[in-house]
Amino acid sequence: MQAAAEESDRSAKSGSLFPPMRWWVPAASAALLVLFLIAVVAILVRPPGPLDDPRPAFQRDGLLRDGPVLDADVAGVRFGERTVIVLFEREEPEGRTWDQWSADVTSGGAALVVVTPVQVAHGSLVDAIGMPAPVDGGPPIGYAVVDSSRQVRYATIDPQYLKNAFEVDVISGAVE
Length: 176
Hints:
It is a single chain. The chain has five helices and six strands, in the order ααβββαβαββα. By secondary structure, the chain is α+β, with helices and mostly antiparallel strands. The strands form two sheets. The protein has a four-stranded mixed β-sheet with strand order 4-3-5-6, sandwiched between helices. Strand 3, helix 3 and strand 4 form a beta-alpha-beta unit. Helix 3 packs parallel to helix 5. The termini are far apart.
């Protein structure tokens, strides 16, 4: 009983129920946290793939305040009557996912133009819009949004565009 009372007196005097922390505990904890964060970044952040922008920071940074203004007709595509979404793809898209994507992005009244490399227009539209080239140096896979005043408002490489219909819809809706 007396030992417990003495322990209680000591902890009351020191202001803590626990012995003081060793100096290396915070340092070791910080070092372990840093190593854990490095491991998470190394595992989760992947390098750009062959279809991605070679500058990863610019992969999804396609908003253009002062994008180029296109002619009324570029390679057979008419601009200026309404918002036009120009989709750059290496093969003609098809399937249920494609049908849903195209319905979603045109629901607000925007026109959709699909451009593939086999079309003669591909090079001139890529150049006029200023689409970046992917890592593999081939034609881009992505899209551009051109407003009704023929100004390019968004242009990005997006090999996963079928999963990002909401982004295209938001951007095209904002420039109408």
